[in-house]
Amino acid sequence: MPYVRVEMIEGRSEEKKAELAKRITETMVECAGVSAESVFVVFEDVKAENWAVGGTLISARKRAAAK
């Protein structure tokens, strides 16, 4: 029973998450040889102010890019 957790900055639509879940499931079936019904995909939306890259919050990077 594979459990795939996807953490990403919030903002993707339900349709995009559905597409991602489908493709992740298909890949697990193809590569791991499991049934689609056994694959769990969980999305964790993270606010930009709670995620940093290279020591800089994503929210700060977005503000700087908007200037």
Tally of DSSP helical segments? 2
Distance between the termini: 46 Å
CATH superfamily: Macrophage Migration Inhibitory Factor
CATH architecture: 2-Layer Sandwich
What does this molecule look like?
- With 67 residues, the chain is α+β, with helices and mostly antiparallel strands.
- It has helices spanning 14-32, 58-66; strands at residues 3-9, 40-46, 52-53, 56-57.
- A two-stranded parallel ribbon has the order 1-2. The chain has a two-stranded antiparallel ribbon with strand order 3-4.
Question: Main attributes?
Answer:
alpha+beta; Macrophage Migration Inhibitory Factor; two-stranded parallel sheet; two-stranded antiparallel sheet; elongated
Give the gist of this structure.
The chain has helices at residues 14-32, 58-66, and strands at residues 3-9, 40-46, 52-53, 56-57. By secondary structure, it is of the alpha+beta class.
Topology:
Elements: E1 3-9, H1 14-32, E2 40-46, E3 52-53, E4 56-57, H2 58-66
Parallel strand pairs: 1-2
Antiparallel strand pairs: 3-4
